[in-house]
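INFO  loader      accepted 1 record
INFO  loader      residues=313
INFO  predictor   begin
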Amino acid sequence: MDNEVLIEARALTRRYGPTVAVDNLDLTLRKGEILGLLGPNGAGKSTTMKMLTGNLAPTSGEVFIKDVSLHEDPKAAKRHLGYLPEQPPVYPELTVDEYLRYCAALHGVAKKALDAALDSAKRDCGLTDVGHRLVGNLSKGYQQRVGIAQAIIHRPPVVILDEPTVGLDPIQIREIRKLIKDLGQNHSVILSSHILPEIQAVCGRVMIVARGRVVYNESLDVTRTGRIGAITIGLRRPPEQAALAAIAGVKTVSALGNGLFRLEPESGSDPREALADAAARGNWGLYELSAHTHTLEEIFVELTSRDETRAAA
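INFO  predictor   done
INFO  writer      dumping tokens
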């Protein structure tokens, strides 16, 4: 993955009267990334997408697309974007070819490059055989493909997709997910969803949003290994409890009896190696060292539920 930053959002905030829909949100998208924006319904995902694409002005904050300010020069910034909103902006009375030609013209595709752009977008989105058909006569899955095709027809470096599989059947969902993953070979993608398997199947990094704030931002490689939770350690000759609590990365220690202890690690820490080293040096007779790891689902539920609890309080 390239380190070139294609989108940078700084302190994005959107208020509707007293309601804060997005609260001081920072977001960075690098070349070659597929970023999943994950959150429960009403978390602020669609509002964030609309601000990133210039369809909604932020109350405060800035968005830069390839170092171009979306506020100061919106036309230049938007040339680098393709966008599929939650409701595909298709015209049912047009054929697929007519609609995509119209979209290409809106995006400024030169006439001499129009046929090649049309053929390329249809090929990438699996629409080659339906160019003559009316959009309104296509299935929901194919209409979504048409929506994605209009987003990539001008070959922007960044493609933003808001809930692209809503309302599709399982087969259509699988096809659209494969299409998005294939798009990631040539485009950087932001995918908004509230569906965990969708993010896990497609994205390389996940950002969880709850009540308009970022509460988690990690690569899927890190997330798949699981975040370290409680650690259980078994010792035949255990030291004083304070000796375990003094080990770097250990937050709290609880005795379970018979030489077993439950340890809570500091946030972001994994003290298992330090525990094993200390047990060897102290001749504590280590016979068990295991950790519970949190899956993405558990992380999502924990962070979003915690946020809802705080809001209620």
